């Protein structure tokens, strides 16, 4: 007899456990307020990413098209995987002296791991992380960027 | 409609599948490369042949199924008339099922229903 | 049909049936519309980016809204490989094989720095493929390590634009985009 | 590759599972020998994601190499970084501020939760239930949001640096974490109803994939895999670091050693992590979040080994320094590697379906194994 | 068991062993040839009972190689680091410990793969991570691979 | 149905019967032999049904016989397959030639 | 010829052709599939003759049961992708000759023999009639064979289990 | 009230009046054919879409919502895509069987449409052995699966096919026994008779607990027979990648996919017919007013409503439960379902003979 009771109690408990699971999914099926989906392309304008989110490295420029990068290559050295290439040139200062200055800040977005080490290393705060994340392109050469804007200059007073 | 509908349905099936496949043959672009025709096995070449003997643990189930299937076939005519035929039919089927159930118990006892 | 720059206008908005719901477009338009809206990805993730790919599938980002959720485990039924993660030299033949075994038309998305260029493992490693496009042709690249789920969605939408345009992979070159 | 014969014996079937397979959680390649549906042998083939991180780290400075470790066990990215930071601090003899310690613990426990949630979903998916996966990700996304606010990334944070953490906590952190803990607690029942108590799930898990305590030790298993066999192996208890010894928590132990025990251990660990967070979240000390360090770090000649308990077990960093700015040799002891080595032992005699469940319950992260 | 006691026991089995106590754990330096008997002793000696090999790795010291074993005892909780020195860089050989700690099988394959240390009597010594036809041992200091490896 | 004479049924069934015989004689593989036997049984069934329909339409004995033959055929097939599998395990072959030393 | 008769000849052709393919195909799996076609076509003939019950039984037992079982046994015992060895030429010849001769002989006999068509009115063959005939214990009832059937099935089941399970206890 | 049956009848009369009988029949056949084909295709689209939406809502998502109006064109896009996708045949495959298998599977599910009563007096063919016909034809589809799995020359396919073979044949037994319990109560195999017998109440209400047990067993068995989760071992994605149709692509895969969903529809339709009264409206004893209101709802709506409810239940299973292992699956059948349904059969007979049902 114990065999039979066993048999039926197994059936009972199994069916119960299964029904409980179905109850749960049934609950979610009928309660649409539990849905947590965000509509990405529509919510693009209202999408608020946390300000610390690291999407890419950018160089800040002010209205006069000036940046703060002195071309010291500290960021290039700090970067673990050679994402940054600083090309320097020699500017003639008003005093007529030659001075090393930034020519091109080459940034390989396709290599960057968003580790923030370059930003930490920069002594002048010339670069920062930006929240842009829509980097999809058809050709990866487009991901190599030049961060300093054309004709931009070093900001006054930044050493 | 009568039995002719079966023919219609069969033709429909052939037309549907054939038409679809034909359409796809016409419209789909194709490409060939040496690896394309090989069997897919998680992205690595298959080892050995795929058509090999295969130790099917299930053939006993298939045998048992066959026997129960025959039993089922005999049950259908019985089921249709049992309501009219009364207790006699009931008794007959009880005997019938009982004998089969013996076999079932035997299979169970012998472990034939266990996985091999 | 001219190829739009992926960013503007945003690719996600073009979603009407061709011809405003009535199938008046040419056959090609219909086909491209169907293809672009039914990109079934192959379940292919090698490392960290695969987790973000899962997040994209998950409820919060839900790529099923675009019809991408039918992730197939076999390349025979998939339309797009999302290379989510690093490709190393040992894996490269496998990837090639998977790509080869896919039926036409097939698309490839390189997700993350690793698949795009080798990323974090570009220098001083002896076993990493420096970009999946050395192995198979890639349609869309996403930068990021890992890219956000939204970024992956963006990439898929970008791919949709491309598929809709009907232009073959070779045609969309750097020159045509910048034009 | 050697052209092997498909059948070793009559009726044996040699079949590849992976490298591209939905249930290998990455690119593990298993060559399994089947007799019917019963597994006779499992032979793992590794290296499909071997990225030579150890070699690479030899040319990275002590600040730089940490980031690459978040790419190994990406589900325990914080803990990996933590171990590396600790090894470097050990070499420098650095004392880190109390606030940084607490932040590190909090972050580690949150990561553990996120990792276990993902495992839970993936585990259920492996045995065929798909819905739990999405439910798990709901909670996981909350953690990701918290992480993102403070660390700036969702998965590979690179938040731990030698001397502390990179940023201070975000002002919202406490509120959000408390919200999350409350929410998650209320969902535990749901987890039980959907998966734990489900009879099919239990049948699939119980008495499958058993590993005895001796074998677990001999195979070097750690983390939940070892603990499910009754082997105490929680580094947080055995060799407490960062002040885990001042916290009040118990190590989750089971004795059955089967899939279900591993499952229960992880479920228990989630509760433990929640209680640890509870204990700390209101008592975050004020102060610096980072100790003062030199711009260029140089470790004195010697060898340093630090261990942490990641979501998968005992993670170790072994640094050999010759006194330069880069490590001379670095070795990451990954928990998954040892756990994987037991797979063949565990899986023999099981069905294919069991193999999938076993792999799910071992919770392998292949890049962590291959490095 | 204190370090002193462990030292005493070890010295019994391999008298040439030298010790180093600067790190967290006791370090034992031995020659590769002495390793197998010592390993057996470490595992089986009732007072030592090092049953848990949690890390096995190798280091290339340019002049020689060494294999490093991190051991701990689940019972007593003490740990030990054993460093076996392999003098011949061209053909480094050491006895396997697969039979003692089963986890060693994979770890030794890894060390073989990356550093080229041959483990004698290993049941299945093949490349683990790299392809079978890979040339060289990448974790050696003199490893060069101009094709795959881009130097920064 | 009445346009088809009974003879045509019988010819079809005869042809089927001898196709079965042909298979039975020419094949050496036990499984194919079994298949041939099934064909033979089926040809008999056709006959039964045809006779029932044409010669004794007022009775159903042909139908019942067919029913029982099918059932017996199934039982026979089940046992035959069991034997074949057993033989295969013994001899690693199911060639009728190899297994004529049938011992059990 | 009416449409209806055409169906019969079409089905008969299908039966014979697929049967012939089944016994001559060298790929054993294909053999099984052709056997399936043949059996289904026979079921079609029954259907056409309005013996629906028998047609259904034929499909259920043969297609759902026997063919599946045969396919299983093929998987189990055969290098299924390998073609069977060609039968010996002589053997083939003799088999063909014997069956052809037999066929001709019987056909000639058949054509010569006059069959008298039964005169009684046709009986309805619906399920009720079949069922009551099967269960009736009076004359012309099939109750006894019906019960015997269960014993036969029991015997077959026991036999199969005994035979098929034997190696488990002896060797392997 | 305009019912489908009337339309069909008047159409037939018109045809008969306008054309000669032969042509009329032919045109009728063509019409039925087109109707069936479009219904078939439409069913596939709707069911796939339904599945995606059901799964989405259970998983806290919204599901497809951007293609067409609220995503309704999503499955259309998928279908067109599949049609224009390359359908390749592996080199090693047995080409004839590989290409034939989808046909077989599709034709079987087509044939199964014949006896289903979609609405009052609207049925392709009222076969008098209806139920038996269903079991007979559906047993052919297993051959299609075995054929597909074997001919692909792929180990996963082979394993999947074997599994599905064992599974389908096993569960056919309990499905048959569950069906039989209703047959016993009705005393006929014809689906029309079965529906007619439920005039004053559905069997699931009239038949006491044994019929409810039969119903549950039927649902479980057909879930297994159609290879649906939690019994989807034949295509267990996390184990065998895609099971028996691993090598199929493009249109051929689409046909399998379609056949799967149509089969679900059919078994649910049968289930609704047997246990829930088919197109019979819900009638409660002597509540005349209530019954009258119920009669007002068209019979096709009743039928579709019941069928889709059952389909929803089967989908509900899929998105809730983990998958069984193959031995557990067979255990469930042979240790639980089969003995219970045998015993249940006797119970039903007993009830029927005692006249205890209503
Ligand atoms: S974020 Fe990291 S990887 Fe990117 S440029 Fe800066 S340092 Fe380099
Ligand atoms: S960005 Fe900063 S660190 Fe880099 S070169 Fe310019 S100033 Fe130096
Ligand atoms: S790009 Fe970054 S996140 Fe993605 S796989 Fe590579 S290392 Fe991992």
What oligomeric state do the depicted chains represent? heterooctamer
Which residues of chain E form runs of ≥5 with pLDDT under 50?
none
Q: What's the structural domain tally of chain E? A: 1
Q: What percentage of residues of chain E falls in helices of 4 or more residues?
A: 10-25%
Distinct small molecules bound, one entry per kind: iron/sulfur cluster
Instruction: Evaluate the radius of gyration of chain E.
Output: 16 Å
Q: Provide the low-confidence segments of chain G as ranges.
A: 168-172
| CATH topology assignment of chain E | Beta Polymerase, domain 2
Q: What is the residue-averaged pLDDT of chain E?
A: 80
Strand content of chain G: under 5%
Q: Summarize the helix and strand pattern of chain E as letters.
A: HEEHEEEEHE
Measured as a percent range, the helix fraction of chain G is: over 70%
Number of helices of chain G: 6
CATH superfamily of chain E: NADH:ubiquinone oxidoreductase Nqo5 subunit
Q: Provide the CATH architecture of chain E.
A: 2-Layer Sandwich
Just name the CATH architecture of the largest domain in chain G. Answer: Up-down Bundle
Number of strands of chain G: 0
Straight-line distance between termini of chain G: 62 Å
Shape of chain G: globular
The most extensive interface between chains reads: F-G, 70 and 89 residues
Sheet with most strands of chain E: 5 strands, mixed
Tell me what you see in this structure.
The complex is a heterooctamer. By secondary structure, chain C is α/β, with parallel strands linked by helices. Chain C has a domain at 46-62 and 80-163: Rossmann fold. Helix content of chain C is 33%, strand content 8%. In chain C, strand 1 (41-42), helix 2 and strand 2 (80-84) form a beta-alpha-beta unit. In chain C, helix 2 (48-57) crosses helix 5 (149-165). Chain C is globular, with a radius of gyration of 16 Å. Chain D is α+β, with helices and mostly antiparallel strands. Chain G is globular, with a radius of gyration of 21 Å. Chains B and G meet through helix 2 and helix 3 of B and helix 3, helix 5 and helix 6 of G. The structure holds iron/sulfur cluster (3 copies). One iron/sulfur cluster is lined by residues 69-75, 86, 121-122, 124, 126-127 of chain A.
């Amino acid at each position: 007899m114990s065999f039979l009771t066993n048999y039926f109690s197994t059936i009972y408990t199994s069916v119960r456990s299964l029904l409980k699971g179905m109850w749960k999914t049934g609950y979610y099926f009928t309660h649409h307020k539990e849905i947590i989906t965000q509509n990405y392309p529509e919510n693009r304008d209202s999408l608020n990413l946390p300000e610390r989110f690291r999407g890419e490295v950018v160089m800040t420029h002010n209205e006069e098209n000036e940046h703060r990068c002195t071309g010291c290559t500290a960021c290039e050295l700090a970067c673990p995987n050679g994402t940054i290439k600083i090309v320097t040139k020699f500017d003639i200062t008003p005093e007529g002296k030659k001075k090393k200055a930034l020519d091109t800040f080459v940034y390989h977005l396709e290599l960057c791991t968003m580790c923030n080490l370059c930003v930490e290393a920069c002594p002048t705060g010339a670069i920062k992380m930006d929240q842009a994340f829509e980097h999809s392109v058809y050709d990866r050469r487009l991901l190599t960027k030049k961060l300093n804007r054309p004709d931009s200059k070093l900001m006054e007073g930044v050493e | 409609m009568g039995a002719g509908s079966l023919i219609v349905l069969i033709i429909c099936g052939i037309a549907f599948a054939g038409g679809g496949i034909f359409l796809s043959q016409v419209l789909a672009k194709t490409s060939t490369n040496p690896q394309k025709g090989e069997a897919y096995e998680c992205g690595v070449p298959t080892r050995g042949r795929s058509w090999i003997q295969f130790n099917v643990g299930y053939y006993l189930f298939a045998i048992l199924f066959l026997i129960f299937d025959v039993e089922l076939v005999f049950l259908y005519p019985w089921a249709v008339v049992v309501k009219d035929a009364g207790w006699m039919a009931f008794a007959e089927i009880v005997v019938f099922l009982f004998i089969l159930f013996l076999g079932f118990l035997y299979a169970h006892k012998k472990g034939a229903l266990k996985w091999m | 049909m001219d190829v739009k720059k992926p960013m503007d206008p945003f690719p996600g908005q073009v979603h009407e049936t061709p011809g405003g719901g009535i199938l008046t477009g040419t056959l090609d338009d219909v086909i491209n519309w169907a293809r672009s809206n039914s990109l079934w990805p192959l379940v292919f993730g090698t490392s960290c980016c695969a987790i973000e790919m899962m997040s994209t599938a998950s409820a919060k980002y839900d790529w099923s809204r675009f019809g991408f959720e039918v992730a197939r485990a076999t390349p025979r039924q998939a339309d797009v490989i999302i290379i989510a993660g690093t490709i190393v030299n040992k894996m490269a033949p496998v990837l090639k094989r998977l790509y080869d075994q896919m039926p036409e038309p097939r698309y490839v998305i390189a997700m993350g720095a690793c698949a795009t260029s080798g990323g974090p493992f570009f220098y001083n490693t002896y076993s990493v493929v420096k970009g999946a496009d050395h192995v198979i042709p890639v349609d869309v690249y996403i930068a990021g390590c890992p890219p956000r789920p939204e970024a992956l969605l963006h990439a898929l939408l970008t791919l949709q634009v491309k598929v809709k345009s009907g232009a073959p992979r070779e045609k969309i070159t750097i020159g045509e985009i910048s034009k | 590759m050697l052209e092997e014969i498909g059948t070793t014996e009559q009726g044996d079937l040699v079949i590849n599972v992976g490298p591209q397979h939905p249930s290998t959680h990455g690119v593990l390649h298993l060559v399994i020998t089947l007799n019917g549906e019963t597994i006779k042998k499992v032979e793992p083939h590794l290296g499909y994601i071997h990225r030579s991180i150890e070699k690479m780290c030899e040319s990275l400075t002590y600040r730089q190499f940490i980031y690459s470790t978040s790419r190994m066990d990406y589900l325990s990215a914080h803990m990996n970084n933590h171990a590396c930071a600790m090894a470097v601090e050990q070499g420098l003899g650095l004392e880190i501020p109390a606030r940084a310690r607490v932040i590190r613990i909090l972050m580690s426990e949150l990561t553990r939760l996120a990792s276990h949630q993902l495992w839970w979903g993936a585990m259920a998916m492996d045995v065929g239930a798909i819905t739990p996966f999405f439910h798990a990700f709901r909670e996981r996304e909350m953690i990701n949001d918290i992480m993102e606010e403070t660390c700036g990334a969702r998965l590979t944070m690179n938040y731990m640096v030698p001397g502390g953490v990179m940023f201070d906590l975000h002002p919202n952190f406490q509120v959000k974490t408390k919200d999350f803990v409350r929410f998650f607690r209320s969902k535990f029942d749901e987890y039980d109803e959907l998966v734990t108590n489900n009879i099919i799930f239990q049948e699939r898990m119980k008495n499958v994939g058993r590993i005895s305590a001796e074998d677990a030790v001999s195979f070097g298993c750690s983390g939940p895999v070892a603990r499910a066999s009754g082997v105490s192996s929680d580094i947080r208890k055995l060799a407490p670091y960062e002040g885990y010894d001042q916290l009040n928590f118990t190590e989750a132990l089971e004795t059955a050693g089967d899939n279900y025990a591993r499952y229960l251990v992880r479920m228990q660990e989630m509760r433990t992590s929640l209680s640890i967070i509870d204990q700390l979240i209101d008592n975050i000390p004020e102060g610096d979040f980072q100790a003062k360090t030199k711009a260029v770090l140089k470790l004195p000649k010697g060898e340093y080994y630090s261990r942490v308990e990641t979501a998968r077990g005992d993670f170790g960093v072994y640094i050999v320094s010759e006194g330069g700015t880069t490590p001379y040799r670095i070795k990451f002891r990954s928990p998954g590697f040892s756990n994987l080595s037991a797979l063949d032992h565990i899986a023999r005699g099981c069905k294919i379906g069991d193999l999938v469940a076993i792999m799910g319950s071992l919770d392998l992260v292949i890049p962590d194994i291959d490095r | 068991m204190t370090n002193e006691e462990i030292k005493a026991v070890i010295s019994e089995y391999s008298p040439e062993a030298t010790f180093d106590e600067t790190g967290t754990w006791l370090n034992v330096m031995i020659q590769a040839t002495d390793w197998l008997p010592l390993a057996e002793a470490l595992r089986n000696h009732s007072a030592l009972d090092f049953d848990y090999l949690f890390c096995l790795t190798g280091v290339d010291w340019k002049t020689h190689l060494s294999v490093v074993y991190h051991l701990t005892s689940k019972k007593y909780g003490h740990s030990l680091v054993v460093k076996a020195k392999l003098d011949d860089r061209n053909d480094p050989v050491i006895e396997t410990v697969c039979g003692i700690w089963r986890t060693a099988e994979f770890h030794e394959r890894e060390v073989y793969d990356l550093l080229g240390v041959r483990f004698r009597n290993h049941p299945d010594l093949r490349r683990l991570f790299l392809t079978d036809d890979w040339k060289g041992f990448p974790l050696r200091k003199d490893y060069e691979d101009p094709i795959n490896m881009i130097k920064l | 149905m009445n346009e088809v004479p009974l003879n045509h049924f019988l010819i079809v069934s005869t042809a089927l019967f001898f196709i079965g015989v042909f298979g039975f004689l020419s094949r050496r593989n036990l499984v194919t032999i079994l298949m041939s036997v099934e064909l033979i049984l089926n040809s008999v069934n056709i006959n039964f049904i045809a006779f029932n329909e044409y010669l004794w339409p007022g009775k159903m004995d042909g139908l019942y016989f067919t029913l029982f033959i099918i059932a017996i055929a199934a039982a026979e097939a089940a046992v035959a397959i069991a034997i074949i599998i057993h033989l295969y395990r013994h001899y690693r072959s199911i060639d009728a030639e190899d297994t004529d030393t049938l011992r059990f | 010829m009416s449409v209806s008769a055409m169906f019969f000849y079409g089905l008969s052709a299908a039966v014979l052709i697929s049967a012939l393919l089944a016994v001559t195909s060298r790929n054993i799996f294909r053999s099984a599939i052709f056997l399936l076609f043949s059996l289904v076509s026979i079921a079609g003939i029954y259907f056409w003759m309005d013996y629906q019950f028998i047609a259904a039984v034929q499909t259920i037992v043969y297609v759902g049961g026997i063919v599946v079982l045969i396919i299983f046994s093929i998987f189990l015992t055969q290098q299924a992708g390998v073609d069977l060895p060609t039968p010996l030429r002589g053997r083939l010849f003799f088999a063909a000759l014997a069956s052809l001769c037999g066929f001709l002989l019987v056909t000639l006999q058949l054509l010569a023999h006059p069959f008298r068509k039964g005169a009684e009115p046709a009986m309805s063959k619906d399920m009720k009639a079949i069922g009551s005939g099967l269960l009736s214990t009076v004359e012309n009832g099939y109750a006894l064979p019906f019960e015997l059937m269960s014993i036969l099935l029991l015997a077959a089941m026991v036999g199969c289990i005994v035979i098929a399970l034997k190696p488990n206890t002896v060797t392997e | 009230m305009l019912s489908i049956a009337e339309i069909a009848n008047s159409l037939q009369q018109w045809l008969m009046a306008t054309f000669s009988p032969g042509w009329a029949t032919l045109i009728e056949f063509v019409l039925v054919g087109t109707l069936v084909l479009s219904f078939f295709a439409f069913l596939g689209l709707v069911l796939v879409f339904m599945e995606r939406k059901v799964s989405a809502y259970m998983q806290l998502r919204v599901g497809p919502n951007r293609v067409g109006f609220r995503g309704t064109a999503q499955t259309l896009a998928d279908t067109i895509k599949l049609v224009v996708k390359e359908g390749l045949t592996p080199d090693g495959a047995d080409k004839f069987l590989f290409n034939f298998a989808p046909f077989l599977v599709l034709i079987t599910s087509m044939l199964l449409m014949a006896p289903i009563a979609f609405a009052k007096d609207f049925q392709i063919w009222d076969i008098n052995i209806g139920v038996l016909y269903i079991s007979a034809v559906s047993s052919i589809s297993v051959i299609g699966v075995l054929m597909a799995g074997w001919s692909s020359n792929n180990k996963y396919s082979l394993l999947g096919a074997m599994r599905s073979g064992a599974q389908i044949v096993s569960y056919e037994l309990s499905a048959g026994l569950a069906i039989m319990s209703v047959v016993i109560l009705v005393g006929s195999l014809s689906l029309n008779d079965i529906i007619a017998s439920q005039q004053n109440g559905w069997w699931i209400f009239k038949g006491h607990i044994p019929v409810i047990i039969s119903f549950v067993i039927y649902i479980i068995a057909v879930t297994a027979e159609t290879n649906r989760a939690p019994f989807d071992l034949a295509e267990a994605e996390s184990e065998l990648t895609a099971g028996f149709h691993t090598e199929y692509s493009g249109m051929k895969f689409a046909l399998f996919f379609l056949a799967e969903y149509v089969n679900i529809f059919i078994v649910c339709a049968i289930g609704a017919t047997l246990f829930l009264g088919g197109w019979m409206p819900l009638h409660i004893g002597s509540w005349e007013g209530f019954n009258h209101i119920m009669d007002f709802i068209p019979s096709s709506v009743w039928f579709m409503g019941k069928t889709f409810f059952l389909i929803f239940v089967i989908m509900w299973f899929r998105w809730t439960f983990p998958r069984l292992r193959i031995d557990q699956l067979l255990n469930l059948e042979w240790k639980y379902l089969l003995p219970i349904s045998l015993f249940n059969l006797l119970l039903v007979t007993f009830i029927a003979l005692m006249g205890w049902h209503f």
